[in-house]
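[step 3/7] fold_predict: job queued, chain A
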Amino acid sequence: MRGHLKWELAIALVEGQISPEGIHMWPFSQSLPIDIRFFDLDRSRDLPRHRPDHCELILVDQGEVMYETENREYRLHKGDLVVVGSKVLHRCRKIDGPVIPAKAIVLLFLPELVADAHTWGGSLNLLTPFSLAEYGFSPVIPGSTGIPRKVRCLVNQMHSLLPVTSADSGAGIKMYLHLILFLLARYSAGLPELQERVHRDSQMLQRLRPLLNFLEAHYQEDISLTQAARLVSMSPSHFIHCFKIVTGISFINYLNQLRIAKSQSFLVETCSSVSDVGQQVGFSSHSYFTSLFRRYAKMTPTQYRSAATGQLLSHKN
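[step 4/7] structure written:
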């Protein structure tokens, strides 16, 4: 299988996708927000610290990798698996001296793809494993546990169904993803302290839920931090603290990212001008919208529309 895979230099690709705020925004397909990539890892220099706007599973396929997350370092070996949560600060570090060239298979997906984290897992929350590093636990699952090997087999099955060309292939990919998450959730269930802390923060999320739902429906309206705090009956200072814990970013960054994500859908699904799209998602200034879009998407709205439209046409053909 190795000879038929397309291996890419990770640092050249990922570095260009990191925003000035340190957010790594992966350009997922419009049809299904999931991707699998095969990376050659340059161990001669550090990758910038960043927080992904998605979840990742990193399978070390060859060599050794120095991995840093939340200011902790781990030396990874062939067969190890790293679980990376959305908004978790991380990066790969350089390794001094002669080392075997490193390769990694990376599964990336948006957590929103798991609409109900309890549906498949029963009493297990399928997204809990992605909180390991955030709560001070090691995000590395050693190859000796046997779990990475099982995950690798399921990832291979998923890869055979990409890109998504039909409803059946999309359903198959989601099924394999849920099986992978179930394996990881069973592993994290053996860490009682993690379960307690996740439960505590889950309660915090439920308190913020009315605001998140409000933003989803009214993202185009003006809403200040003070107004947002009032919606969930918190003081501004306590709101800032809770919102950062739950989302990993500030309220303003969250609102801007939400608006940019909505604008991307409008650019692909409508014929509205770029200026109109900006106003539809809450930006009164065309220049500010374009500048912010370029900052997050690494391209202008016009370039994004052209690239996304071309991608959709290639899938149809």
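[step 5/7] annotate
The longest strand covers residues 34-41.
The mean pLDDT is 86.
exit 0
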